[in-house]
Design goal:
Chain lengths: 119, 119
Amino acid sequence: MHASTFAALGEPKRLEIVELLRRGPVSVGDIAGTLGIRQPQVSKHLKVLREAGVVEDEPVARRRIYHLVPSAFEELGDWVESFEALWERRLDSLGDLLTTMQATRSDAQTTPEEKEGSP
Amino acid sequence: MHASTFAALGEPKRLEIVELLRRGPVSVGDIAGTLGIRQPQVSKHLKVLREAGVVEDEPVARRRIYHLVPSAFEELGDWVESFEALWERRLDSLGDLLTTMQATRSDAQTTPEEKEGSP
DNA sequence: CACTCATATTCCTCTTAGGGAATATGTCTT
DNA sequence: AAGACATATTCCCTAAGAGGAATATGAGTG
């Protein structure tokens, strides 16, 4: 996963553009009009999104219609999924830990004990 | 979905930190040592990640152990999913379009390109 | 309490990114 | 080909962000 993808989405206006494109392909001028951004800024933002692989454009008549690129979101989804798989494992470990603690001791008072293990 | 989450992940070193934390909770010093970044920079990056809700820290002895925050990734996952649902709808529309075109059966004209596929 | 280790914060500098205005490129239309 | 429209690019300026070095805060240990 490239940081540039996140960087592209990390700018508020660009995220708005992406949310707008969610509704379907839109031209540069329409993006500018809908979001109240000036056309040159829109073109700049689209350039960043395009180079990050988030959007693509297709010329139609004399305008350029921009649309989202599914594979970018698939990659993102895979990445996030690979993290979500961790919580389950962790929760299992936590369950084990709690079970162990409960079995070992069931009392705790003022002084929190220091967990040892790192030399 | 807040742009700040993406912005936090959009910096290469910070993304590295997140990838490292995937393996489990780590102290600031260990992050610095593992990634070859100086401690102050690590603290700064962690501050950004923390304020974006991506990581949390817990004091253990005299260090601070940082770990990922599941809810942040869940939110991310939901967001991405809401996009992936679109492709299917779009593909349905495309299917309809193709069906219509085939039914109409009026070829010739300015149909310049065809996606390569099964011949 | 003084000391030390671990982390956070500050100050400085420099590069980069974003907005505004103007202009260049490109593409239909007539 | 000239003109009109749509988009991209450039220049300028300002501000945000990231690294380096030094220092402040905080927590545990003798």
